[in-house]
Amino acid sequence: MASSRRWRLLKDFGSFLWKEKLWWMVPMALVLVLFGVLLYMAQSAAVTPFIYTLF
User: For residue 55, how many other CB atoms are within 10 A of its CB?
Assistant: First the structure.
């Protein structure tokens, strides 16, 4: 149920960007999502050495 809310939020955000023609926000949103995935993966001890090499 919580995952369907997340997908709905992302779908609504995407449709908002599409309707309002805010194309310049798409790269910023992608960077924020990738950064969030990076932070989520940083919680795992097995992935941490690979993340440290990025910075």
Answer: 4
Q: Where are the domains of the chain?
A: 22-55
Q: Which two tokens stand for residue 6?
A: 């997340």
Look-up of token digits 């690979």: 50
CA distance 15 to 32: 18
Per-residue pLDDT band for 1 (boundaries 50, 70, 90) equals low
For the whole model, what pTM was predicted? Answer: 0.53
